[in-house]
Amino acid sequence: MDIANLGVGLAFVAMLAWGMGDFFIQKSVKKVGDVGALFCMTLFGTVVLSPFVYKNLPALFTGSYQTLVILGILCVVLFIAALLDFESLRVGKLSVVEPIWSFEVPVSALLAFVILREAINFEQVVLIILLLLGLMLVSLKSKIEFCKLIFEKGTIIAFIAAILMGVANFLMGWGSRLSDPLMANFITDIFIASLLAIILIGRGRFRTTIKELVVNRKILLQMSLLDKIAWVAFAFAMSLAPIGIIVALSESYIIIAVILGLTINKEKIKFHQKIGLVMAIISAIVLAAITT
After folding, report:
1. From CA 220, how far away is CA 36, in angstroms rounded?
2. Residue ranges of the domains in the chain?
3. Residue 292, exposed/middle/buried by CB under 10 A (0-12, 13-18, 19+)?
4. What is the pTM (predicted TM-score) of this model?
């Protein structure tokens, strides 16, 4: 199998895992809060990945200085982006926040082009734009006026989160190429889990949070497993194929969430959402097909 095709396949794995994981994330946040859910995710990743990376940890600190710097910046950016993502969902409307998150894609693609000189052809650019437009239409539950959008709660936070997550996506891809995808995931997980543990201890909520995690362990385990499958597949995909294309395809997890809503919850969507869904699916399939 062609390496780029394998990367595209892994991007679809990430898309599916994130699409299904959204359901569990929303439920988990309501039960244990933003910090608790993020702490559980990263603690799970640290424990699960440690057997696969511990032998390579000494080489990471004695190897290239550049790798450590990139992974260090990734840890900080991803931590801030994740907290802002949760905060934008807490204070804003999902119909406003989700379309804005699509800006992760051009940010990641631009950084890959400027820093790594990773170019994508004209046809791929057009398909990525069509895919983003489709995803934005699917995300819009109702018509939103642009002037009102600026003043909606959570809008500014969501924009900042999207930009930072785009940077984090790029750094995860770059860091995965410099070290390896499992190591990049492990380093970010252990950094964020440790930082959140310190925050929880400082607030006097560490023991309470641990008890909440134990009580809600079933749904939290499902959430954490799907999230880690998605991030590992995503990191491997970006180490094998162009970062901009992989981020665009992975961002299509919104399609999975909508399809699950239609089939399982018997939800109804509006005409413009149907157009967006068809546009996004066709664009994603064609983009994957022409990426070699």
Report:
1. 10
2. 3-290
3. exposed
4. 0.86
Q: Which of 254, 253, 235 is nearest to 108 (CA)?
A: 235
The rounded distance, in Å, linking the Cα atoms of 64 and 177 is 12
C-alpha 97/C-alpha 85 separation (Å) is: 9
* Predicted confidence pLDDT, tens digits, the chain (292 residues): 577 688 889 998 998 898 888 778 777 877 888 888 899 999 999 999 999 998 888 888 887 788 999 999 999 999 999 888 777 766 666 556 666 777 888 899 889 999 998 888 888 888 888 888 887 777 666 555 444 445 455 678 888 888 999 999 999 999 999 989 999 999 999 999 999 999 999 999 999 999 999 998 899 999 999 999 999 999 999 999 899 889 988 877 777 767 766 776 666 777 877 888 888 888 888 888 877 6
Residues in the chain: 292
